[in-house]
Please model this.
Amino acid sequence: MRVENWDTLYFIDGSELLTIMFPTQVENTLSTYDPHCVVVIYSVVDRATFHLAEETLSYLWQIGYCASGKNAIIVVANKVDLERARVISQEGKCN
Model:
């Protein structure tokens, strides 16, 4: 599987909003861009993405990313419509 980074610049109400999608380089991205929000996405049909999401959330917690109250983390479970293929329970446990 080949995953690349994507950068997209949006303008909302005259303000710039830069979105950056990246597979694993959280440390580099945080130090380069200083984002106000991090969206962590995992697939409920892929244990590896769930474990990567756990590692990412752990790292964000360790560095105190939300400690100031100015930053946010959003966690998104993808492919929830594939109930028969689900390997991550709704409680966040691997089946």
Observations:
- The beta strands are 6-12, 15-21, 37-43, 72-78.
- Helices lie at 26-33, 47-62.
